[in-house]
Amino acid sequence: MRLERLIFFRNILKDPLVEQYLRLYDLSRKPAASFAELADVYCLFMGTMLEELSRLGNCWSGDGWTCLLVERILADENLFSLKAEKLGREGLGTDFLEIAAQDLQLLEKLGRLTWAELTKQIIAKGKTEASSLPSWNLPSLQTGKQGAEGIKSQLYRHFFGEASWAQAVELLAQYYHQQGVGLYGKYYAFQWTGDDGDEERFSPVLNRDPITFESMFEYQDEHALVIRNTEQFLAGLPANNVLLYGDRGTGKSSTVKALVNRFGPRGLRLIEISKSQLLDLQKIMAQLKDRGLKYIIYIDDLSFAEQDSQYAALKAVLEGGLSLTPPNILIYATSNRRHLLPEKFGDKDVTGMSYDEVRFMDTLQEKLSLADRFGMTVTFVSPDQKKYLAIVEQMAARRGLEIEQEELRKRALLWELHQNSRSPRTARQFLDALQGELGLQQLKEQEGIS
Which pTM was predicted? Predict the structure, then answer.
C-alpha cells in the first residue's frame, strides 16, 4: 500500500488501532501464516474495534474500519491540518493541497480494506466459513446515535462513496478551518489541568452541560448582550471581555455554557479555569494563540480577597500588561461581587477623615479598576415574584407536567419560602422535586400501591 510514502498524515501509522490492523493485514499475506494464528490476531483486533466503535459519538454508513480511519484523519494534528485550521482553504498553497491529496490517495487504499475484504484473505487460509470470523459491523453499536452533521456529514458521504479520497482535500481543509483539529475538533469545552508532571494540558469535558438559551426564561435582554458580543468575536470583529455579575442562581454560569452549545459548531471553544489558576493565564494563551479557533477563557464565581496574587495576573491580561491578549481569545467571568473585591462601609465615605490609607482615593480607584477592564458588564438581578412564577410556569410547560396552574403557583411560592431564595435555579430545583414526586405517584398508581 506504500504507506511509508505518507508525508503529512504519517502520524496515523503510529495509532495503536492502525498498527493492529496493519499487523493483521501483513500477517494475512504471509504464506506461512496459519489460520489459527490469524484468527487469534483477528479476535484481538476485533475486540479493539468494538470498543472504538462503541465510543464513537455518531452513527455511520458502510464499514466501521473505514469510519475509524476517517475519524483519525479528521483528528490528526499535522502541518497541513494545523495550517488549514488557522488559514482556511484560501490560505493554503496548491503545493500543500497536492501533497495532502497524495496522502489521502494512499490512505484510501487502507480505508477500502473493509471487513469483507480482510476476512476473505484470512478464511482462504483455513478453508472455513466466514461466520467463524464475526463482523465488527454490529447494528447495535449504532443504536441511539445520531448521524454526523454539517460539513462532517459531507466528508462522511465522500469517504464512504465511490469518489477518490484525494478529491476531498479542499473539503477536508474547510472542515479543519471550521471545526478545528485534534481535541479541539472533537470537543467544545475544556478544563485547564495545569501542570501534569512535565505536561501542561487541557482536559476535554466529556459530559458537557447541554443547557441552551431556549431552555432559559425571562432573561432574554441579558442573553442578547452576551450573544451579540460573542457573535462579533466569532466574526473577527472587535468584542469585549465580559463580566456577568448578579445575584446567585440567576443563570450567569448557564449563559456562558449555552454559548458553546450554540456556537461550538462555528468554531467557539470554552476553556474553564479556576481562580487559583489565574497565574497560568499567560501559559494558557501561549498554547491557544496560534490556533485557528476562537476561545473563551471562563472563570466561574470570581472574587478576590484584599491581597490575592491572582488579582494582578488577571488585571495585566485584561489590560495593562506588555503582552497583548491574542485576537482569538476573550475572557468571560461570573461573580456575585460587582467590583470583584470586598467593599467596606468605610469605602463609601469620601470625606477622607478616618482612614489609615494616606491616598484613600487611589485605593478606591484600584478596587474599581479591575471590573472596568472587562469592557462589558451584564447584570443579572433576582426576579420579583411575578417573574419567578412566570419562569416556573414556562419550565413546567416545557417539561410537560400535568398540574393545575393555581396548584403549581401555590407550591412554587411555598418552595421559595422554604429555600429563602427566588431565582431561576430555585424554580428548576422546585420543578425537579415536583416532577419526581408526580412521577413516583404515577408509578405507584400503576402498581396499585397507595
Answer: 0.84
